[in-house]
Design brief:
Order of helices and strands: EHEEHEHEHEHHEHH
Largest sheet: 7 strands, parallel
Shape: globular
Strand order of the largest sheet: 3-2-1-4-5-6-7
Strand content: 5-15%
């Protein structure tokens, strides 16, 4: 999908970020606040998390609950009268082979990582259409584009976020609304703490990939902001991700061979 070059905004924007109390969400909140934007940070905690910058407002929001989204919309209408950026960032991690991960794990990750994004888009699209402008940013993952073995549930929901975002980028364009999907590779964050599945071997491997990355959430957030300013449809945040994504698109036999070798390593753990 092509990108449309734009300059950074000259006036403060009204921004809502989900999953804002840790990881990439917190880094994005800090980056937006640092640029002078008006930010509503949301997360599960009832009380305001101490880690948030003072300039950011806070509202509890469980992305699984429709009534919580309704409350967020009411807050935005009453406080700002509109919204410029909706950042659907909340998410959890899961790794598991298809015959090990339970159906409860599938329902859990689908409800948060995919349907949580759907609820956010559904809730705020009428407001954005009404004002004739806005930008929806959905956090997926490189796993939404490149599908390694042993991560069926995570890959599936993140691919769903990519598909939803591309669909809405076309559907909402006539209404003056941009849509971007963020697809980072591994970076250092506390996302691994949300692992809670039956396939402990795959989850341990996932935690090691996260903790071993050289990239920080702040570095990824800075790249995401540049992608938002440029109105990029797909925001790839690192060189590794770009290489693998291009390999899948333009050198499919080599990509497939790498994935089959990875699958053999996974099979040896069973």
């Amino acid at each position: 999908m092509p990108s449309r070059s734009r300059h950074a905004p000259s006036s403060p924007r009204r921004v809502l970020v989900t999953g804002a109390a840790s990881g990439l969400g917190l880094a994005l909140v800090r980056a937006f606040v640092g640029r002078g934007d008006h930010v509503l940070a949301t997360d599960l905690q009832t009380e305001r998390p101490d880690v948030l910058p003072d300039a950011a407002a806070y509202l509890p929001l469980d992305v699984r609950r429709d009534e919580a989204w309704d409350a967020a919309l009411a807050h935005v209408r009453e406080t700002w009268g509109g919204l410029d950026l909706l950042v659907n960032n909340a998410g959890v991690a899961a790794g598991g082979r298809i015959d090990v991960a339970t159906m409860d794990e599938w329902h859990w990750i689908v409800d948060i990582n995919l349907l949580g994004v759907v609820r956010g888009c559904r809730t705020f699209t009428p407001l954005l259409k009404q004002q004739g402008s806005g930008h929806i940013i959905n956090t997926a993952s490189l796993a939404g584009l490149v599908h390694a073995p042993g991560m069926a549930a995570y890959n599936t929901v993140k691919a769903g976020v990519v598909a939803l975002s591309e669909t809405l980028s076309h559907e909402l364009a006539p209404h003056g609304i941009d849509v971007s999907v963020v697809c980072p590779s591994f970076f250092r964050t506390n996302l691994g703490a949300s692992f809670q599945g039956a396939d402990t071997e795959m989850e341990d491997a996932g935690r090691k990939m996260v903790s071993g990355s050289k990239r920080t959430a702040d570095q990824v957030a800075a790249i995401v902001l540049r992608g938002i300013d440029a109105r990029r449809d797909v925001i790839l945040t690192d060189r590794d991700g770009r290489i693998v994504w291009r390999a899948k698109r333009f050198a499919r036999p080599a990509y497939t061979a790498v994935m089959k070798r990875a699958a053999k390593r996974v099979a040896q753990d069973r």
